[in-house]
Design a protein that fits this description.
The protein has 279 residues and is of the alpha+beta class. It contains 6 helices and 17 strands.
Length: 279
């Protein structure tokens, strides 16, 4: 399977973002990609008001368009994440959608971990306008079990281990990873998640600046189950692609069977400490 990670510099202009995303998805498919991953908030990136204005339901124009691209091109498409408006919910969801080559929705994942941090002189409070999801999702498309995650999730290894135990062989990470954290942590974390779970990881990142304070690292990349970076972007908007050899993945899992050698019965969650308790 050939996979592609699309890199965007999205803004609050949803029409422009969708037009560019479509062009790059088509370009990736023309390059032979059977799986294409869009970045986090590919439909709109901006302040809380901009995200609220751009929010859509699952059957809105953005995901409807993504489904049409997948079916027309015959590709599996991870529609990165978008700000989803859900009936009966006061806050938005940061939602990733796995779409199969027939254009059908194969899995829906709502970001579990809210980006409430202070970094690079900027205070991010994602939970002010968005609510966390509740479910871990592993979908399947083109016969491949695919685990879904979004950006800040990358720092929570237990999420990825559960997906691997549930059968995921490919882990997707649409993101808007910041420039300072991305420079230090983006590649090491992607490679760690690949190594420890013996799975391919596709990280599709935003790049560049967006109002009011976003500055995304870029460097979208594809990592194999040994932790080797197969492909990485170095510039601005575009895509990067690589071949995913699932036979090689199975050989790694057979020769170095760390997943099989787990001892779940011996594992216990530690007693909570003040550091681990969220007030």
């Amino acid at each position: 399977m050939r996979a592609a990670a699309v890199q965007l510099n999205a803004s609050a202009d949803t029409d422009r973002n969708l037009e560019l995303a479509e062009r790059l998805v088509r370009d990736a498919a023309a390059d032979g990609a059977a799986l294409v991953v869009l970045p986090e908030k590919w439909t709109a990136l901006g302040d809380a008001e901009a995200l609220e204005a751009a929010a859509q339901p699952l059957d809105g124009p953005a995901i409807s368009a993504a489904r049409s691209w997948a079916s027309e091109l015959g590709v599996t498409l991870v529609a990165g994440s978008f700000t989803e408006r859900r009936e009966g919910h006061d806050r938005l969801s940061n939602t990733s959608v796995l779409i199969d080559p027939e254009g059908e929705v194969a899995a829906i994942y709502r970001k579990l971990h809210m980006f409430d941090v202070d970094v690079g002189g900027v205070s991010y409070r994602e939970s002010d306008s968005e609510e966390p999801g509740e479910e871990i999702e592993v979908g399947e498309a083109a016969g491949i079990p695919i685990g879904l995650s979004v950006c800040y999730d990358l720092r929570f290894p237990e999420l990825y281990r559960i997906m691997a135990v549930r059968g995921a062989k490919l882990l997707t990470v649409p993101a808007a990873f910041t420039a300072p954290t991305g420079k230090a942590h983006w590649e090491p974390l992607l490679r760690a998640r690949a190594i420890e779970n013996q799975a391919f990881v596709v990280g599709a990142n935003q790049v560049g600046k967006a109002a009011p304070h976003y500055d995304s690292r870029g460097h979208s990349m594809i990592v194999d189950a040994w932790g080797e970076v197969l492909a990485e972007t170095t510039g601005g908007e575009g895509f990067v692609a690589a071949e995913l050899d699932f036979e090689a993945l199975e050989k790694i899992r057979a020769d170095l069977p760390s997943l099989a050698n787990r001892r779940p019965a011996a594992y216990r969650w530690p007693e909570l400490t003040p550091l681990a308790v969220v007030s």
